[in-house]
């Protein structure tokens, strides 16, 4: 039986999604819970992809195989009773044996949040990027449009990216909104390179501050050089919001 | 020069307000920052009172003396540049030499937050008490009224309380509100005994679940016995909201 799970996690106290020796990871905690359910037997999980240390998820997805015959509701309950309080299964479902959480992902949505205030808010330090400089939302919205469509994202991904092959990706939506002192960025695409969301948002901040013009974005794409783009904004503002599959 | 500061802190990673050896405390962090400003000289601070591990503050207050002549804005800036990100000075002010943050406090306000949902929200685990059982807000509001006024709060404070002398306190307001799945409790009074807010809220939850009638509260006061009251609700839902002084 193949089971698909949709999970939320507060990334603050995780060294990211992917398992690592001697580090607290999301995958590590799920493996522990599954091993308990399977009486000591290890069960490997396959996620839609990695998230970095400090990055949050509202809709990360993984699958695993089990010969235990539990209903989706029972899987959800069993896992949640064993998982730590910063990691929660929102949904469990039986899926076809050919389903793969990574390879079948059709679209991913990330969101990034900025608090644009002079005073620091101690309660949001791990959940939003506190950026005190004035931002021109109109210019940022104009610049966001330049990222939509199919492009080679070499300029806007980490030079340390392990991606082999093409760095061409298609973004269906890159938008930003202001609600009071809160900025929301929504990015949807067929795939994202390492640090791609955080570098795009960092570049949009440069536009918002007037360091860069919206119309410069095209030239930056053509440089194929990470150094020409904006800073990588910090992980705590980033949320893996949703992973969409063909069956959905 | 006597300086009064109003601070916010995220209590999650503090072992409370009061300094303790080998523990990260709010007072300890402020002492470190003041020692740096005073070139290695220790400066003692006096707060309005303790808060427990995990308890938050939006308006904790302390004072200290210094022979450094900084303006209030300079004190605020100097401290905030040295304090960790989960502790923030909202306001600094010069006060009269006779001002005392603890003894001159006229009124304290605490707030307590409950998330009344079946599903756990991983992002709020340290900031709200997630309580999944159905609650009758009308009955809780009725019961809250019984706590207002002047009473001996022995039943509604920790038996471990170090308070010597009278356990009589006056509460000016005990109220609760529901906003969607969020419950807010507001308690204002001339002083609070150890765990008093958390035991009153725990008792109100018993009323909300029907374990106790609003009209039983009077009898509980008369018992002078901690065992007759409800559980002490967890610290993460509690905020020291405001301390009011005569001068304010």
Automatic annotation (TrEMBL), chains A, B:
The active site is at 52 (nucleophile). Its EC number is 5.4.99.12. Formation of pseudouridine at positions 38, 39 and 40 in the anticodon stem and loop of transfer RNAs. One of its GO terms (molecular function) is RNA binding. It catalyses: uridine(38/39/40) in tRNA = pseudouridine(38/39/40) in tRNA. Keywords: Isomerase, tRNA processing. One of its GO terms (biological process) is tRNA pseudouridine synthesis. InterPro entries: PsdUridine_synth_cat_dom_sf, PsdUridine_synth_TruA, PsdUridine_synth_TruA_a/b_dom, PsdUridine_synth_TruA_C, TruA/RsuA/RluB/E/F_N. Substrate binds at residue 110. CDD domains: PseudoU_synth_EcTruA. Residues 7-104, 143-246 form the Pseudouridine synthase I TruA alpha/beta domain. Homodimer. This is tRNA pseudouridine synthase A.
